[in-house]
Known about the structure:
By secondary structure, the chain is an alpha/beta fold.
Amino acid sequence: MKAKNKSDLIKAQEIVTSSGNTFQYEVINFLRKAEWDVIVSPFYVDNISGKPREVDIIAQKKYFFGSWANDPDGIVVVRLIIECKYLNNAVVFWFDKKNIEKAVERLITDTPLKHPLQNMHINDHHYYSVKTVAKLFASSPAKDSENDLIYKALNQCLSAYILYRKGNLFDEANYNRPNLKTYNVSYPVIVLNNFEKAYYVKNEANEVAAVSGNSPFDKSFQLEVDYAYQEMDPTSRIKEYFLVDIVNFQEMSGFLGMLEKLDIGTLQSYLPYLK
Length: 275
């Protein structure tokens, strides 16, 4: 066998070093170790451009609910639609009060939970309990949103989320059981390698502070988005309100623990009483 060309090996190493695939696989391996089922980089066709696109990761995990561990009442299937981004340069986020009314509408649409005036379980869900969100972002002084790293991640994440939030992607025999009620819950998520280059605007004077450290956002925060898109019918245009979790990979276990404690725990407590 012919020996490998040394210059090709160097180029290959440069590709590995500069590629985001290395970080993507860090996230994949973390999720697998945490016992999530993972699909790597599924491709889909963008309805607007007609071009093939991909999202980095779709992860899924099942949680039982009911009175008896060995005889559950049902299953909550949690799906994460994840885009991974490696921050090389500074990114700034502008925070503001969350639109709680729209957040409640999102929760009622996506989960069996009811309005907080009808049922207090919704109060613990992190879409409702967290009151401050990022609403603007920028990674350069130029107003060139299409080349903004967070803009790209957001667009990829939400485009894939809209397509993959419903339907069967995994071996559903492992998730759905005919005798058990199944509820599906999906989340759009952007995972950053860390928050060391992430900053936020603290006040109206535009004072900038680091997200990492002692800020309330150093582990994860939500990005609030009004997102318009087309379905297969080019004459249709849909506008939806979304909350996208921006997660520090260094705090990924804390984020998943928060989902289990607040969101999934809320559903596990509420669903047995749902008629």
